[in-house]
Amino acid sequence: MALSLLCMKLVLISTGVLSVVFAVKNSVPLVVDFSTTQASSIWSGFCSWLKPPFLYVIINGIIISITASSRFYNTNRHGTTIGTTPVPVRTTPVPVGTTIDLVASLL
Fold it and tell me: If DSSP states are collapsed to H, E and C, what string results for 35-76?
C-alpha cells in the first residue's frame, strides 16, 4: 500500500515538473517576440498619455471624482455620520453572585 502511494506521488510530481518545463519552453519564444515587437509600441502609447494635455485631464478627473464622492458622505464635526441615530441599548442590572440563564434572558 505504501509503495503504491509512493509511486503515485512520484508519477504526479514528475508529471508536474515536465508540464512546467514544457510550458516554459513554449512561452519563452512568445515573450521574446512580444518584447521585440509590441513592447515599444505600448511604451510609446504610455508615454503619450503623460504629455501635458492628457495628464491635466486625468489629474482633474481624479480630483473631481474625489470631491464628488466626499460630498455624498456627510459627517459632522464629531466624526459621526449625519442622518443616522444611535440605537438605544437596553440594559438591566444584575446583582453580583447570581447566575444568568442566557436563553431565558433573550426571550
Answer: HHHCHHHHHHHHHHCCCHHHHHHHHHHHHHHHHHHHHCCCEC
Cα distances (angstroms) measured from residue 102 to each of 94, 105, 107: 12, 5, 9
The answer to whether the beta carbons of residues 83 and 75 sit under 8 Å apart is no
Q: Which residues pair with 75 in a beta bridge?
A: 81
The count of C-alpha atoms lying within 13 angstroms of the C-alpha of 46, restricted to the half-sphere facing its C-beta, is 6
Q: pLDDT, tens digit, for every residue of 52-81?
A: 888 888 899 999 999 988 877 766 555 555
Q: Which of 104, 84, 85 is nearest to 94 (CA)?
A: 104
> What does the alpha-carbon distance between residue 16 and residue 21 come to, in Å, rounded to a whole number?
9
